[in-house]
Amino acid sequence: MTSAHICALIRLGWGTTTSARGESTAAPANREEITQEKRTANTGDTMVVYDPSLMTDMYEYTMLDATLQDGTANRPCVFEVFTRHLPEGRRYGVVAGIGRLLDALEDFHLDDADLKFLSDRHIVSRGTVKWLENYHFTGSIRGYREGEVYFPNSPILQVRGSFGECTLLETLILSILNYDSAVAAAASRMVTAAKNRPCMDMGGRRTNEWAAVAAARASIVGGFKGTANLLAAKLYDLPAIGTAAHCFTLVHDSERQAFESQIAALGTNTTLLVDTYNIEEAVKTAVEVAGPNLGGVRIDSGDLAALAQRVRNQLDALGATNTKITVTNDLDEYAIASLQTAPVDSYGVGTQLVTGSGAPTCAMVYKLTERANNAGHMEPVAKKSVDKATAPGAKLAFRSYEYSLADCEHVISGSESALENFVPGEGWEDLLTDFVVNGTVDPQFQGHDGLMAAQDYHAKALAKLPITAQSLMRGEPVIPTKLEVL
C-alpha cells in the first residue's frame, strides 16, 4: 500500500460514484469521518502504519544525519526533476502524479514508531531523531502542470528548501512521477489512437494492487474516461465500470440464464459479455432477453475488427441499433489504431496501460542544481560524470510557438541574478507553476477537481503540438529542447 493512496483516502473521503444501473450514489465527504484506522493494514497479528516519510531510500536519512552533524543540512538548495531522454521512439512525455505528490507531502512527517525504527536500526543519530520530530516541509515547489507535455531536459519539478528537508523527498517524488507519467503517456497515445471513442482502465489485475490505483488516476490525466478499480473511483470520484466476466456465464446452466440474471440485477442498460461460447448465438440470445434497448455487448477475444463488424450488422438486423460494442483483450495503442474503421464504441485496456505500453518508467532523476556556499550566496552546481552530466543552476522553462503550434522548448539555466534579469522571447509560454509556497500546498491541484483540470490541460497542451506528436511511428521528440546557460 503506497502512502499517497492512504493519504488520499484519509483526505478526500468518499466521493460520488456511479452504480451499475447508472445511478449516482453519494457517500460521506467529510474528511473527519475518515478515521485514522484507514491508515493501517493487517499483516498477520501486526497492524502496520504506512507513512510517506518512510517511502524513501535509506541514504536520504543517512545524508540528512551526516549534514546535520557537519552543518550543511540547513544550506538553501534547489533540486530539479528531469529526464535525459524520452522512452525510445516516443514523441513527447506527459506529466502525471502532481496531485498524488501533494497529498503525500502534506502527510510527510514521522510518528513515534517511525522515529523508533530509525533509531533502533541506527540509521540516524539521536540528534537527527530530535530534528525529525517536528519535520514539515517548509520550502517551495514549482514545475510543469499535471497534464503538461515534456521533453528531454525539461525541468519538470523544482524543489527549493534546505538540503535536509529537500533530500528526504527524492524517492517519494521520483516513485510517483516516474510511474504515473509513464502510464499517462501510454494513456494519451491510446486516447489519440481511439479517435474520440472512450477508453476505460481495466488494468488492476495486471499490476501491484496499489499501483493499480495510481494507474487508474494517471490514465484519467491521459484522457481515459473511467476505471474498473473501485478504490480509485472512490478516492478520485471517477466513473466506475464493470458488469460480468466469463465465469459468471459459466456458473449458470446456460448462457440465457446468465443473461437473464444479469438483466434482472442490473437492468437492460447493462453490457453483456458475448464471447464465452458462440458470439452469434450469444448476441441473438442477448437481444431476446434484454430487448432492442440492450445497453451494450463486450467482445474479449478473436479478430476484434471482423467480429465487431459482424456483431454490429447482427445487432442492427435485430433492431438493437443503439446497442454499443465494447472490445477488450490485451489492447495497446497500436491495436486500438487498427480498429479505427471498425464499429467499436469503446475500449477496455489493461496490461499495456499499467505497464506504460512498454515504457513502465520515464527515467526521471532528482538532482541538486544550486546551493548556498559558505558565504551564504547561492551557487550553481553540476555533475560532470560521463553520460550523466547536469546543467548547473536553477532553471526557467518556456515554450515558443509559430502559427499557434509549439516549435521549441527553451530551458534557461544560470545564477539567481541572471535568471531574474532574463527576458523571454515574444509569445513564449512560461511552463512553471507554483504548487507549494513556503510549505503551503495549493489545493487546486488535488482531488477530483485537480485531476479533471489536469485531463483538460493535457488535451489542450497536446493540441498545440505539431500533428506528428500523434503519430505512433517511432521518431524523435516532436519539438527540440534548447538549453541556454546564462
Protein model, in words:
The chain contains 17 helices and 23 strands. It has two domains: 271 residues, Alpha-Beta Barrel (nicotinate phosphoribosyltransferase); 102 residues, TIM Barrel, CATH 3.20.20. The longest helix is centred in the middle third of the chain and has 25 residues. The N terminus is likely disordered. Helix content is 36%, strand content 21%. It is an alpha/beta fold and 486 residues long. Strand 18 and strand 19 form a beta hairpin. The protein is globular. Belongs to the NAPRTase family. Catalyzes the first step in the biosynthesis of NAD from nicotinic acid, the ATP-dependent synthesis of beta-nicotinate D-ribonucleotide from nicotinate and 5-phospho-D-ribose 1-phosphate. Its EC number is 6.3.4.21.
Write the layout of secondary structure elements.
Blueprint: H1 3-12, E1 16-18, E2 24-26, E3 40-43, E4 46-49, H2 58-70, E5 76-83, E6 93-94, H3 98-106, H4 112-120, H5 126-132, E7 140-144, E8 149-150, E9 157-162, H6 163-167, H7 170-194, E10 199-201, H8 209-221, E11 226-227, H9 230-236, H10 246-251, H11 255-266, E12 271-273, H12 279-290, E13 296-299, H13 304-317, E14 324-327, H14 333-338, E15 346-349, H15 351-354, E16 364-372, E17 378-380, E18 394-402, E19 405-414, H16 416-420, E20 429-430, E21 432-437, E22 440-441, H17 447-463, E23 481-485
Parallel strand pairs: 10-11, 10-15, 12-13, 13-14, 14-15, 19-23
Antiparallel strand pairs: 1-2, 3-4, 5-9, 5-16, 6-8, 7-9, 7-21, 16-17, 18-19, 18-20, 21-22
Helix pairs in contact: 1-3, 3-7, 7-8, 8-9, 11-12, 12-13
Domain Nicotinate phosphoribosyltransferase N-terminal: 54-178
Enzyme class: ligase
GO molecular function, one term: nicotinate phosphoribosyltransferase activity
